[in-house]
Amino acid sequence: MKKRLLAAVLAFSVLxxxxxxxxxxxxxxxxxxxxxxxxxxxxxxxxxxxxSQTEADKAINEYFEGKNKEFFSDEMLVGAREYADNAxxxxxxxxxxxxxxQYESDDMISFMEKSAWYMGGVSNGNIFxxxxxxxxxxxxxxxxxxxxxxxxxxxxxxxxxxxxMDNNPGMWFDxxxxxxxxxxxxxxxxxxxxxIDKDGQVIVSYPTYAISYGAAGxxxxxxxxxxxxxxxxxxxxxxKSLPFKNTDFLKKWFEKTGMx
Length: 260
Hints:
Layout: H1 2-17, E1 23-29, E2 32-33, E3 39-50, H2 55-72, H3 75-82, E4 93-104, E5 108-118, E6 124-133, H4 142-146, H5 150-167, H6 180-185, E7 193-196, E8 201-206, E9 219-225, H7 233-241, H8 248-257
Parallel strand pairs: 3-4
Antiparallel strand pairs: 1-3, 2-3, 4-5, 5-6, 7-8, 8-9
């Protein structure tokens, strides 16, 4: 009994020591307002800042620093700021971006990138995504996330997209000049955007107009469920490290207490 209690305490202490990525969401707001303080051009980005300063943290922070610089220096945005005084405060011009936390496992962390754009006329919104390795902070490509080659990943994405199209008729280009199935067939691996959602599903997003009418907005296609978020491998690794032949009692204890 004492050995089992000691094992439980040891496993629990090791699990608590498993490093987690500490970050906070920050906002850069460069909106244009009139003399009354009303927004004429809503211009902001919400992004994560990692503060434990490991090499992975630094790499991820550098990524967002570069993306933010690129976002605020866009030529179209710079031009829009010059005529923002013409905007109606009830319908202000908009150029925003928000990185929304989605998935975190032992080895990856993923964000949905949600953008909104309006400069008069039709408003646009797009969903992209970015996933990082928690080991060194590199951007995890779709093939790596799926544990496939790029050709295999592209083939799977097309198969799932065609299934999605078959299950959602009436929203696709289908004439001789522009055909949605042909557009998907011609898609290149490097043109794909994805993120991993909170349930561990790899989601591929096609930007507005990419394969369907503008009214359809982004096309979001679930591709495959990867490892569930949570302790995952860390939990199994801890159990294997303990000096016991049978650790089933520990698994049951953690499940019973809701800690796994």
